[in-house]
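TL;DR need structure tokens for one chain.
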Amino acid sequence: MRDAQTVAALRAVLADDRAITDPDIVGRYVHDEAAWAPHGTPAAVACARTAEDVATAVRVCAQLAVPAGPRGAGTGLSGGNNALNSCVMISTPA
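>> reply
TL;DR here they are.
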């Protein structure tokens, strides 16, 4: 239920195609190259195209007390920014 609330709140402020919940796509964002490091399943991935999209996604997460983490290319080797259960991973613009 909480994940549905998070997704609905993101979709209310971001374009639908920017709040991703498809498990096949979300799976690409859950961990970096350190596959051994623990990770959870995010409620969604917010694909930000602008700095304002990033700020909007962070604002939604803060209002709902949902953990959020920035997601770059995922080439790290330490598991330092792996997903937590029910978090929002924010894919940052290149």
